[in-house]
Amino acid sequence: MAEQAKPLVGVIMGSSSDWDVMQHAVAILKQFGVPHEAQVISAHRMPDEMFAYAAAARERGLRAIIAGAGGAAHLPGMVAAKTIVPVLGVPVPSKYLRGEDSLLSIVQMPKGVPVSTFAIGEAGAANAALTAVAMIAANDDALAAKLQEFRNQQTAAAKAMALPTV
Ligand code: RP5
């Protein structure tokens, strides 16, 4: 249902091999009923498509772009270079450096063209989506109420945590 409406959030990733991580962003957007789209757009293998996607993002109504990539992870920064739509970068774990390369590639943007950068892996993907939800909720009271309830549930779960007796 959320995928059929005009998307507000674009989820892009450099490879289908990123899906295991990036599906956690899509799951959050689905959970909150935020219209979204998801596709592979590779910075180094599809540079023309990447630029076209970024250039059209604002006029297509996207309010945020969640971009995940691994290794020399150019995708979030290059998309940010071509649009003023906020870009939320997710470092995907890499084979040899466990995603530390992805993290540094994404987070170290020079001053002037920001990429909001999240944790490596699943938590980063989910939190990027939660941040997109929060951005949209700034002008959507029903969505804000859902987000607050989501947080309340985590508080209740933490309060109910018990430790083994020693
Ligand atoms: C990056 O290279 C992708 O984002 C992916 O994390 C990594 C490996 O891509 P594949 O070789 O699995 O397609 O561009």
UniProtKB/TrEMBL annotation:
Entries under Pfam families matching the protein: AIRC (PF00731)
Enzyme class: isomerase
Keywords: Isomerase, Lyase, Purine biosynthesis
Biological or metabolic pathway of the protein: Purine metabolism; IMP biosynthesis via de novo pathway; 5-amino-1-(5-phospho-D-ribosyl)imidazole-4-carboxylate from 5-amino-1-(5-phospho-D-ribosyl)imidazole (N5-CAIR route): step 2/2
Sites where the protein binds substrate: S15, D18, R45
Entry EC no(s): 5.4.99.18
Classification via InterPro entries: PurE_ClassI, PurE_dom, PurE_prokaryotes
Entry's family note: Belongs to the AIR carboxylase family. Class I subfamily.
Protein function: Catalyzes the conversion of N5-carboxyaminoimidazole ribonucleotide (N5-CAIR) to 4-carboxy-5-aminoimidazole ribonucleotide (CAIR).
Protein name (record): N5-carboxyaminoimidazole ribonucleotide mutase
Species annotation: Massilia solisilvae
